[in-house]
Amino acid sequence: MCTLIISLIILGLTSLILFFTGYMRTGIHYLTRLAHQQHKQVRMSQRPKRIFLIRHGESQANVDTTLSARMADSRIELTERGQQQAIEAGEKLRSIIGKEESMYVYMSPYRRSKQTWANIKKAFLPSQILTEREDPRIREQEFGNITDLQKRPHELEDQDRLGHFFYRFSCGESGADVYDRASLFLDTLFREMDNGHHDPTQNIVIVSHGLFMRLFLMRYYRWNVEDFDGIKQFGN
């Protein structure tokens, strides 16, 4: 009889322990999930008000497609029309941002991108520009041997056949390579946002190149390769 009573007591205590253990695990799981959700909400609240992607204005190479065979791509400048396009882009940007908001600016180190920003910023007060930073990760795709006019037709034919995302130019980059750069840049951008380096009430302006912009959007919105292939090149 005593043995039976002891067994029942042990069974009851075991059940009670298991009950509270399960309750505690459920509670810990709930608190962990709640903390994750709150952290996510905090991170989202630190995102900028807007992100603007701006392609450089018309460049010399947009007018003379053979120029890249004679000049380093990074040194190609804007045309007069490209300068005017950049001024108009600044006026358009000001009509959206206004005079009260500010911006953090990232630009490609290529000359045409820096010239584009130099003309855009004319529309703003110095106090509205919180930072200006060159970042080589947002530069133009490196086209390698496409600068050789004799090899160019074959390179472009292979690119059309194999796909603009995966095809890597000889001695250059593929779209996938630029995608990796865009991912690294975006990771840095998110990390700076999460660490409070950016005021969430302000804007981020990125002055870059057409292909980079499409791949940035692909990474940001998690598009697939087919989505990327369906996006037309942005105009100057």
TrEMBL record:
Residue spans crossing the bilayer: 6-24
Keywords per UniProt: Membrane, Transmembrane, Transmembrane helix
InterPro entries (UniProt xref): His_Pase_superF_clade-1, His_PPase_superfam, PG/BPGM_mutase_AS, PGM-Related
Domain of life: Eukaryota
Active site: H56 (tele-phosphohistidine intermediate), E140 (proton donor/acceptor)
SMART domains named among the record's database cross-references: PGAM
UniProt-listed PROSITE patterns: PG_MUTASE
Binding site for substrate: R55, H56, G57, E58, S59, Q60, A61, N62, R112, K151
Record GO terms (molecular function): catalytic activity
PANTHER family the record matches: BROAD-RANGE ACID PHOSPHATASE DET1
Protein name: Phosphoglycerate mutase-like protein
Organism annotation: Adineta steineri
